[in-house]
Write a structure and sequence with these properties.
The structure holds two protein chains of two kinds. Chain A is of the alpha+beta class. Chain A is built from three helices and six strands. In chain A, helix 2 (60-68) crosses helix 3. By secondary structure, chain B is α+β, with helices and mostly antiparallel strands. Helices cover 31% and strands 32% of the residues of chain B. In chain B, a hairpin with a 5-residue loop joins strand 11 (166-169) and strand 12 (175-177). Chain B is globular and about 55 Å long. Chain B starts with a strand and ends with a helix. The chains are: A alpha+beta, B alpha+beta.
Chain lengths: 99, 311
């Protein structure tokens, strides 16, 4: 799906925490998705979204707001695009869903 | 698996009795956790098999077997003058017949095939495994990366061989199960081992196989005698032989090691979450590295230093 078609008002939430098993190491996380049987390397942003930020329905605007502090100044549009891309990928993996 | 070994080993048999078993009811022998029955009524391979399997314990002929393997010769049709060898396991023929000259590698590959297809009570890693000072070194690698050559050299340099091909571990446990087997060397690696390990017992070279020229190195006696001694993972080294390369030995992140180890598991997806947790445990308790080398002595020294550094 084209990131341009995802509204900032769209609410996202993670799927059931019971669907995931985590392996945490000092240098990162690996996740096992029980329904699909797939294993994924999770970057910091993915970990934050799936484990905590999306435990409740959250809009794209609010998600971007959380990560804005870490983004380079003046790169708002890139931040939005990257968050949408990440959310779409996590949705493909079955880890998050739109409401 | 039933492991009712007798107190006798293959080498305790006379060569005549050994041949009679291979040509008759089958050689009943324990290979790691497996009770194997091996029938090979092809007399020209008997002397090599007697040497290769001398240290393996005999089991009772009426015991439960993990598998019955059988190689036999037959005539090709319509080219009647050509002889072929057929591999069968438990009465089934899993692949096409191959030239009769390849009888030895066909048998060894066949036993490996049976292990790989059936042993799903284990997580099976495509990895050599050796033990030193009570810890297991895993050498996971795709074919052609020099794993078996390095493993063969290590096995003859104070490392106990658990396997050159299969890292077997029961899910949610931490110890690797030995399954020492004749080690299949290919092409140039045969001469590499002959030169670097002159004491290694290497069977006849067989040319024209799908892997080129192959020869099997006998597992050191101590590896077979101690095939009941498990070892807990301590080091994971992903090796790659590269012609002319300088030695490179770099730590590897746990996350990368996890994914590479999972990719080198024959049955990771089949075992599901149990495999995930097992790989997690193995990686968590191990030091992980990537090794690139062209000189086998440098690689041996590097791995020895890795062990020494751990104290």
């Amino acid at each position: 799906m084209n990131p341009d078609t995802v509204s900032q008002a769209t609410l996202w939430r993670r799927r059931s925490a019971d669907e995931c098993a985590w392996a945490e190491f000092e240098d990162g996380c690996v996740l096992y998705h029980r329904p699909s049987g797939k294993t994924h390397v999770m970057n910091d942003a993915s970990v934050a979204l799936v484990s905590e930020l999306l435990s409740e329905p959250t809009s794209l605007a609010d998600i971007v707001g959380v990560f804005r502090a870490d983004a380079a100044a003046g790169r708002e549009e890139e931040l939005v695009d990257s968050m949408v891309t990440l959310l779409l990928r996590l949705e493909d993996f079955g880890l998050v869903e739109r409401m | 698996m039933a492991q009712t070994a007798t107190d006798r080993r293959v080498g305790d048999l006379t060569e005549a009795d050994f041949s009679n078993l291979l040509s008759g009811s089958g050689l009943p022998v324990r290979i790691g956790p497996f009770n194997a029955n091996i029938r090979a009524p092809i007399e020209r391979v008997h002397a090599t098999l007697f040497s290769m399997y001398a240290e393996y314990p005999l089991i009772r002929g009426d015991d439960f077997f993990s598998f019955h393997t059988h190689i036999s010769e037959r005539r090709a049709l319509p080219a009647w003058h050509r002889k072929l060898v057929r591999f069968a396991v438990d009465g089934r023929v899993p692949h096409e017949d191959l030239p009769a000259e390849q009888a030895l590698p066909v048998l060894e590959w066949g036993i490996n095939l049976v292990i790989a297809l059936r042993s799903h009570c284990f997580l099976m890693l495509h990895s050599a495994v050796l033990e030193r000072r009570g810890g297991a070194l895993l050498l996971p690698a795709a074919p052609g990366f020099g794993k078996t050559t390095l493993c063969t050299a290590l096995a003859h340099n104070n490392w106990r061989l658990l396997s050159d091909e299969f890292g077997l571990i029961r899910p949610r446990t931490r110890e690797f199960v030995p399954v020492p087997r004749p080690m299949g060397l290919k092409n140039e690696s045969i001469e590499v081992i002959r030169n670097h390990v002159p004491e290694a017992v290497i069977g006849p070279a067989v040319s024209g196989t799908r892997k080129g020229t192959v020869a099997h190195a006998k597992p050191p006696a101590a590896s077979v005698v101690n095939q009941d001694v498990l070892a807990e993972a301590r080091w994971i080294v992903f090796p790659r032989w590269e012609e002319g390369a300088g030695l490179s030995f770099e730590p590897l992140s746990k996350v990368d090691s996890f994914m590479m180890l999972a990719m080198n598991a024959f049955n990771y997806e089949l075992l599901g979450e149990a495999a995930f947790r097992t790989v997690q445990d193995i990686v968590a308790q191990s030091r992980c590295y990537r090794l690139v080398y062209s000189d086998i002595d440098e690689a041996l020294g590097c791995l020895q230093a890795m062990v020494d550094d751990d104290g």
